[in-house]
Design goal:
Layout (H helix, E strand, L loop, with lengths): L1 H32 L12 H9 L2 E3 L22 H6 L2 E9 L18 H8 L5 H4 L1 H18 L4 E3 L3 H10 L7 E8 L9 H8 L2 E5 L22 H13 L2 E3 L5 H10 L5 E5 L13 H9 L3 E4 L3 H4 L4 H15 L4 E3 L17 H9 L4 H19 L8
Bound molecules: zinc ion (ZN).
The site of zinc ion has 5 residues, from loops.
């Protein structure tokens, strides 16, 4: 009896310890990875704030679905959640699903076979066991998280599966509800687990933008941070063809220069680079060449400018604004957009609620109001309205 009592007690104690670890560790991990640099409040003039409040703001890249935070709640860590997005007046947010991230992550060379950090994160964040080994399931689970959020606060967030959905969401949005139109994307097509049929599976779950790569080479071709730097494989070409036929937008962030060239040579639709900087202004291994940016723009594509140091070199609002001005010079004002990279294991100089500081910085750079409107969101809105499936059935 004593023995049984003891073992019951030990079991309870062990359970409490495990629960405490699960409760404390994921937020601590995120706190250490998605930091905002300490700063005084940014000065935003009345004029800039009024302009900002009248903008339609769109961001092509925030990895917020990866973390265990409740996105309904205003958190004091991480970069983005619904309350902070609404405070920043963000109208369109692309949410990519990260599904694999090699340990020892760097921008120069990562091996696909290295230990995967997302497995640990999935277990620590108590994601369902089906996500522990399957990359496709990880993407499906992140789509479920967004769908759950939409169900809980439908007046604040709406998932966009078609151009029509976007039109309706934007027509419903006003300055009181500040609804966020949310678009699902993948960060790397290793999420397909080597099966073309999974493009349909992810499409059915709501995915309308697909990145081909993340930090390592995959079955589609070489990553910008992989080992081979190779171009597209036959599998990659077949995947892009299917994506184009289905109206899925192709994102070439993190793809090798050879893959970017290959896709540009064969694609029938424009592509995006959802989060990047330009090498001509910030020569970091994270960025691609100005020539490729120029080619993407020539083909009607969109370049999302990132907010973190390796993308822009100077990550202050003024520094991001300068990279935007540079990108406008290279790509033209109709092809530049925002791609914050919020919550993507990066340190930034602001969270999403402070994004009016960027409007101020663009005014300070002398960019016209019309061009600020384009870059801050209207280019992305127009691109999505044109290239999303026009009338996808709501599932
Ligand atoms: Zn990324």
């Amino acid at each position: 009896m004593m023995k049984r009592l003891f073992s019951t007690g030990s079991f309870l104690l062990l359970s409490i310890v495990v629960l405490l670890i699960l409760w404390l560790v994921p937020p601590a991990v995120e706190r250490s990875m998605n930091k905002v640099k300490p700063h005084d409040p940014y000065e935003v003039s009345e004029e800039a704030q009024a302009l900002h409040d009248s903008l339609l703001i769109a961001d092509l890249h925030a990895d917020s679905l990866l973390w265990s935070r409740d996105l309904k709640v205003h958190s004091n860590y991480g970069h983005a959640d619904l309350p902070r997005m609404r405070r920043g007046n963000v109208a369109i947010q692309v949410f990519p699903a990260v599904t694999k991230s090699p340990s020892g992550l760097n921008y120069e060379s990562n091996v696909a076979e290295s230990r995967d950090n997302i497995t640990l994160l999935a277990i620590a964040q108590t994601w369902p066991p089906r996500t522990w080994r399957s990359l496709t399931e990880r993407a499906l689970y992140q789509a479920e998280r967004l769908a759950r959020l939409e169900k809980q606060i439908p007046e604040q967030v709406r998932i966009i599966r078609s151009a029509k959905d976007l039109k309706v969401a934007l027509a419903t949005r006003n300055n009181e509800n500040r609804m966020v139109a949310a678009l699902l994307a993948t960060e790397g097509s290793h999420a397909l687990e080597g099966k073309l049929a999974n493009i349909q599976t992810l499409y059915d779950a709501g995915y309308r933008m697909m990145g081909l790569h993340h930090f390592f080479d995959n079955r589609l071709g070489g990553s910008l941070h992989g080992v081979t730097r190779e171009g597209m494989t036959d599998f990659g070409r077949a995947a892009v063809n299917i994506m184009e036929e289905m109206g899925i937008i192709v994102d070439l962030s993190h793809s090798s220069a050879a893959v970017v060239n290959d896709v540009l040579n064969t694609a029938s639709r424009p592509v995006v680079i959802s989060h990047t900087g330009l090498q001509g202004m910030c020569d970091s291994p994270r960025n691609i060449s100005d020539r490729l940016i120029e080619r993407i723009a020539e083909k009607g594509g969109l370049i999302g400018i990132g907010f973190w140091e390796d993308a822009v070199c100077d990550d202050s609002p003024a520094g991001i604004a300068r990279m935007i001005m540079y990108a406008i010079d290279i790509a033209g004002v109709d092809h530049v957009a925002l791609g914050s990279g919020f919550d993507g294991a990066v340190k930034t100089s602001m969270d999403v609620s402070e994004i009016a500081a960027l409007t101020q910085a663009l005014l300070d750079e002398g960019l016209s109001e019309d061009d600020i409107r384009k870059v801050m969101g209207e280019n992305t809105r127009d691109f999505l309205l044109k290239w999303l499936p026009q009338n996808a059935v709501r599932l």
